[in-house]
Design goal:
Blueprint lengths: L1 H19 L8 E7 L5 E8 L2 E2 L13 E6 L6 E9 L5 E3 L3 E4 L5 E4 L4 E3 L1
Parallel strand pairs: 1-8
Antiparallel strand pairs: 1-4, 2-3, 2-5, 5-6, 5-7, 8-9
């Protein structure tokens, strides 16, 4: 009987640890996006399985500005993304596709050439 009780307590403890451990996914991640370029950023797109999302931004981000973003994506922490910039004629220019660990990103910086994060 003692063995069954001990195993039950151990199983309960293990289940509690699993339920309390944070899931390693990007769902609901919050971060800042900082535009260190002279361009107006008008799009943030994420990719999965060769397909790209709709634009996550419903605003434009001028050079020198920072905005809060929330990333609602049910996937892993390493994400592919690209940004778009507003061209002089009003169209959008697509930036290079980049991969970052969104779970570690507090701020994503764009300098007009590349994206970095901290």
């Amino acid at each position: 009987m003692k063995s069954i009780v001990t195993k039950s307590i151990a199983a309960l403890a293990a289940a509690t640890l699993l339920l309390s451990a944070p899931a390693v996914s990007a769902a609901g991640m919050k971060f800042d996006i900082k535009n260190d370029s002279g361009y107006i950023i008008d799009g943030f797109y994420t990719g999965e399985d060769g397909e790209w999302s709709a634009n996550w931004m419903n605003f434009k981000l001028n050079g020198g500005e920072t905005a809060n973003m929330e990333f609602n994506y049910e996937g892993g922490c390493d994400i592919e993304f690209y940004v778009t910039w507003e061209a002089e004629d009003g169209s959008s220019i697509k930036g290079d596709e980049t991969t970052i660990n969104i779970c570690e990103a507090n701020t994503i910086y764009f300098d007009g050439k590349q994206a970095t994060y901290d």
